[in-house]
Each structure stands twice: as structure tokens, then as C-alpha cells.
Amino acid sequence: MGTLNESSKTIGFANPSSYVPKIIFFTKGKGIHKDQLTSFELALRDANISDLNLVSVSSIKPPTCKIVNREEGRRHLRPGQIVFTVMARSSTSEPNRLIAASIGLARPVDDTQYGYLSEHHSTGETATKAGDYAEDLAMEMLATTIGLPTDHTLTWDQREEQWKLSGKIYKTQNFTQSAQGNKDGLWTTVISAAIMIL
Questions:
Q1: CA-to-CA distance for 179 and 156, rounded, in angstroms?
Q2: Where are the alpha helices (DSSP H) in the chain?
Q3: Higher pLDDT, 68 or 14
Q4: At what angle do helices 127-145 and 156-165 cross, to 10 degrees?
Q5: pLDDT at 145 (0 to 100)
Q6: Which domains does the chain have, with CATH numbers?
Q7: Which phi and psi angles does 58 have, rounded to 5°?
Q8: How many CA within 13 A on the CB side of residue 145?
Q9: What pLDDT score does 2 carry?
Q10: Which of 55, 66, 77, 151 is the 20 to 30 Å CA partner of 157?
């Protein structure tokens, strides 16, 4: 019987380390249409990712994964390519209803360690409130893995200050798209996404 490595080569599996993304970029978009699915497609187009086959994954920013802007990230992708994404999405057909989709990011000081991404989908929240919440989620998940205390009685600002002063969290940020529901009741969809490139 052959080894796992030999079997993998025989049936065409790639080396597992080749599935760790090397580049990540963030994007967001909004779409409006009478059909909900089409409004989602238009949001993907607005975010410049509608030509990709998107596969949803959970919330880890890989170690040493370089963050680039959308334009740079797109240069590494071809139409039809299968791409891993962490995506937040929210839709409404209620006139003037406030919706938001936000991705939060928390990175450790040591870039050889992994960070966290969070997805937050909301109604009735401003972009600022939704973004702060997504950022807080990511920071809290990271904090628990690097030994920082999580005191839920503190406000978001107090916890952010506490964690940043620890010297273990390098940076937190959020990428948020918000919108008000179309006044005529058309479907409005917002998305925010982290696109991971192998």
C-alpha cells in the first residue's frame, strides 16, 4: 500500500499547503432589482466579483497572508476561477429599511500567527455601528486565542483600548456596505467580502 503522499499524487490532489491563501483583498457592493437574486448579482458586479465562482469559508486570516487593494487582487484572478471568500450579505424589499453587511478583521502583531475575520449582517444599523460590531467580533475571537481577557462588562471602546494596549493585537478594521431599502419596494442587497487568493 502506498503512502498518503503517493496516493495523493496518483489521484491528483495538490499539496495541502498550496490551499493556504497568500493574498487577500476586501470588496463591497450594492444591487437593486425587482428580483432578490438579481439584486445579489448586481451587488456582486458592483463589488467586481460576479465573474468568479465563490466558495464560502469560515473566518481565519492565514499567517503572512498579504492584504492588497481590490485592483491588485483582481490581477491575480480569471473569470470562472473558484475563489474562497468570507462574505456578509443582507437584503430587503422594505422601503427605506436600513441594512448593512460588514466584514471585521483583527490581526496579531506577530504576522506568522493567524488572524480573524468576522461577518455581520444587520438591519436597522448604520454603517458605523455595523462596522464597529463586526470589528469587535473579530477582535474578541482573536483575543481569546492569544490569551487576552474578555470582559463583557466593558464597552467596545474600552475593550478595544485594553486589547490594543496589550501589544498583541496589531490592527483591527472593518469593510462595510450599507443601504436604505428602495423607496418603491425593489429588492436591495448589500455585500461585503474578503477574497482569498491561493
A1: 24
A2: 4-11, 36-46, 70-74, 127-145, 156-165
A3: 68
A4: 40
A5: 84
A6: 19-197 (3.50.20.10)
A7: -80, -160
A8: 15
A9: 45
A10: 66
